[in-house]
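Pasting two entries for a bug report.
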Amino acid sequence: MSTLSTENLSHSYSIGTPFEQQAIRRISLNIGQGEFVFLMGHTGSGKSTFVQHLNALLQPTEGRVLFNGEDINRDKSARRNVKKHVGLVFQYPEYQLFEETVAGDIAFGPKNIGVPASELPDRIREAAEFTGISEELFSRSPLELSGGQKRRIAIAGVIAMHPEILILDEPTAGLDPAGGRKIMENVCRYQEKTGASIVVVSHSMDEAAIYGRRLIVFNQGEVYMDGSPEEVFSRSDELSSFGLDVPQAAKLAEALRNRGLSVPKSVYTYEQLLRAVREVLGC
């Protein structure tokens, strides 16, 4: 069972200069085995800085990051080792594709962490299957493919490392709705098959409502809310006060309540809204 936790984690940029800025402060969180977590917050709230600490890409100014109880920053060896277990997919990862072929790009991550060459073909095929990439594309240049295909290739390159915790920073940013749904469905399939923990940084409240099981809301570098979608979306006034929205279904439910329909405040997806309206109307 893999767990990832932070203890009083803080990070400042440009320390000792006039531009010094504290991005996150005193964050203590635990991400357990098999969780599906969405990190929400307005631009500049600290989400991306936080997740870059989770696989030692950034090192804390204060506090610790623990993987299975061990400090991932205790030495260089620990920082290298955590990357075998905690995979991070950056925002717009398709801009980081640079190998000549799709197969080469998917294989880059596993090779980097020491996966034997004999295992690479199976890793490539498995990751491609999870992300919906057909084998006929393996010999193609990734630069020839569509934006959605490039995004899936980049995600496959991290999945091929077999991370026990997969972190994705805005994985659907810039994609059309159909492409975004495909990405999220692939991520869900990976979790179902492997039991991995998933952490998604997102601005989309609708995505969080559909896929999230736990929502962590950042505000001004601190954790402001941490709970189920029902708990978080029930505090819509607070979310709005610092620039966040609520799912469209929740807005529609509120409008129906204002017109006198007894729709529960716990409604935040269209499926829930449809059931609630049918109950109210008796059909």
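Entry 2 (this is the one that rendered wrong in the viewer):
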Amino acid sequence: MTKKLIVLALIIVLAASVFSLSACSSNQPLIVYLGDSIAEGIAGMSPISERERYAYYSVLGIRNNYIYKNRAVSGHQTKQMLDLIKQEDSDVRMMQTVLKTADIIHVSILGNDLLQNNLGELILDIANGNNVVIDDILSKATVNFSEIVDVLKGYNPDATLMFQTVYNPMFPEATLINEATRTSLAALDITEEQYRQLAADILARLNGIIHAYLQAHPGAFHIIDANAEFQRIFNENPERGRALIFGDFVHPSIEGHAVMADLIQAKLEDLDLAKAAPALRRYKDLKIEQLKDLYSDSLDVSAIKKQIRNAKSNEEVTQLYLAAIKGKTPVYA
């Protein structure tokens, strides 16, 4: 090998080493999502191909220039999630390594502990004064939740840990209560308008698991109170409150994901883990990109783009975007 070739090879190796070191010392935080289908973001998207630009896990990653990894699994209850995070690095998920190196861990769990045990039947049980089933569910979920926190803190005591409360998806027309259960509830003089409050009472006990743990262990994690925020919006505007839930009466809609993204964003900014101005700028870029990709044939994108650029908040960007695409059919591959 000539001297010139040797020198060139050394330069290439040195450049590669510098690049590798730079990549390893990146200031981009790693956020990892755990839990159920709400965190996984597989439902509520329309079109589903836009999951990476609608689901809150990716919206937050894009807004804040985070490295983000989603390890949530649709259908998981607390026991299944606990089993998952205990797994060693035996597959591409590299579960323990990802959790041990995360800067932020966000968890959406507990909802399936109720939903997979038939929420309608649980409401009927409680209306009949029978708390045996719900007490058993909550007891087991409490034990699992506590161990989930212990495992995550054991892996990574320095990570910022967040748990999201379960919102209320119940409305009079919700398919979560079947016709047979409706008939039984009516026989107890319980009207459809009372369903939401009955569900709220159950969810208060479920979300109480999160609040009780934090009260007993101050500073263990941060609560993202999706339940309170969804209810606040519903109280102010019932039509919009319903619109936060997808047509399956379980998962968040596009707007529901946007609301949760804003809720988590506010907490990240409070903790100085995110900066408001660049996050808003990137979110504007994301929505404008979507308009161009999906709706350029049916909208005056340039006019809406100007409005979005002038928006003062993430929520305003979302509302402008949703108003623009309402009733429009996206064009996508």
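Dev reply: Rendering is fixed now. As a check, the viewer should reflect this: The two ends are 51 Å apart (CA to CA).
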